[in-house]
Amino acid sequence: MDTLKEKFASLALPMRADVKAFIKEHGTHVLGSYTIEQVYQGMKGMIGMVTETSKLDPEEGIRFRGYSIPELREKLPRGKGGENLPEGIFYLLLTGELPAEEDAREVSNQWARRSHVPKHVLDMLDMLPQHTHPMTQFSMAILAMQTESVFAAAYRKGLHKNDYWDPMYEDVMNLIARLPRVAAYIYRKTYKNNVHIEPDPKLDWGANFSHMLGYDHPDMKALMRLYLTIHADHEGGNVSAHATHLVGSALSDAYLSLSSGMNGLAGPLHGLAAQEVARWILELKEKYKGVPSREQLAEHINQTLAEGKVVPGYGHAVLRKTDPRYIAQQEFAKAHLADDELFKIVQLIYEVTPEILKATGKIKNPWPNVDAHSGILLMHYGLTEYDFFTVLFGVSRAIGVLTSLLWDRALGAPIERPGSVTTEWMKAQVAKSKATA
Ligand code: CMX
User: Fold this and answer.
1) Residues that are catalytic
2) Å from CA of 175 to ligand 1 middle
3) Residue 240 Cα: closest atom of ligand 1
């Protein structure tokens, strides 16, 4: 058993007993109540699941195992050339403890060793039409790798429920290890004439990913580490995390569950917004032949709203302030590409957009989210094919949703099955409570 697996077992197995005892003693404790509006409008703010890895505060933003992004930028091990290693955030999400340099290195080594992608997965990708969206390819490739699931094989053989976590650990490690190779294959096949680049086992996970994509500039490798770290997790209720958790609750293995999560991430109101932001900014730049004036930008935003579209990269279902993931990327841009024309446009959008969104009177959060910034950083280093951006998000998000899924297995999370009602039932409830009032 590798040392991280041993550590996980030493943490998770006692916690399983602890959670059982907690439910037994306090299971009837009432947490809150909810309204008809919440039921109709996406269950916002209703507590409906437990996610150990991270917690999102509307005002402050995400905390990974209690640590904010600025704190983690100080405390997590860094890669050669700068920025935190995503291996470190994985270790933190899995164990709740900050990794030492050698802990992150051990994760790097494990992932390098486990990264082989079976040939049939690449063959399947080769057979898809050229115009297949990269996110569709990514989700299909994850599904095609399900042939390798250690959990599915062990379950078929016969597995005691107390042991589910063990093959799940193997699936989670193998799957995360394989994702950069799969994603890079999709990128090179779709945009670089099917010319592929072999992995470099001497590089850390993020730098190797950048290398396989074809980007060896040290700053791009640093950006990739930053990108893969900050997109990793956003508590359990966001669409990609919730979909992974929900599908996994039926004991679907990590491959089946993550593929579902990625299908959710591919929606324009979630991870696809990264692509939509880039498209929107390029349209803007084309329309006004460069950096627009404040008036021109306001006109473009108002036109977007008047056409009944969303301004991509702005707003959030939980956050009520500027996303700290946006700020982390803004700091990177100020340090590395302050004169970039697209960065100047992004800064201008940040100055102009919130007031216009506030003035609509209905948008609860007028501030930028993570997707408002990510694309233009990648474009600066030459990765301009914006339909691919959400795949990068997906590689990172796998870290959070799969560590959570492993905790679900270790703690014995049950199948998820919330109740649903009809509008007729809702109206009857309101009528009943009016009658008794
Ligand atoms: N542009 C225009 N309208 C917006 C808006 C935006 N950026 N954000 C919210 N609204 C609208 C909603 O569509 C809704 O309109 P209706 O009442 O006509 O249906 C109204 O404002 C109220 O919405 P809300 O409660 O403020 O926001 P929601 O929780 O419903 O939605 C989100 C959150 C992110 C889907 C929404 O803000 C949005 O569509 N933003 C743009 C897309 C985007 O950037 N998504 C990425 C989010 C981060 C991520 O998951 O990666």
Assistant:
1) 270, 316, 371
2) 32
3) 50
Quick one: pLDDT at residue 1? 82
pLDDT band for position 296 (50/70/90)?
very high
- What lines the ligand 1 site, CB under 6 Å? 238, 269-271, 273, 305, 310-317, 362-365, 369-371
Structure tokens, 90: 């994985």
Domains, the chain, ordered by start:
1-416 (1.10.580.10)
Residue 212 contacts by C-beta under 8 Å, 6 or more apart in sequence?
Answer: 180, 181, 184, 188, 196, 197, 198, 199
Which residues partner with 78 through β-bridges?
A: 84
pTM: 0.97
Separation CA 115–CA 234 (nearest Å)? 25
Distance (angstroms) between ligand 1 centre and the Cα of 171 equals 35
Name the residue among 211, 334, 325 with its Cα closest to residue 271. Answer: 325
pLDDT bracket for residue 243 (50, 70, 90):
very high
Q: What's the CA gap between 377 and 178, in Å, rounded?
A: 25
- Which residue, judged by its Cα, is nearest atom 23 of ligand 1? 363
**pLDDT score, position 433:** 93
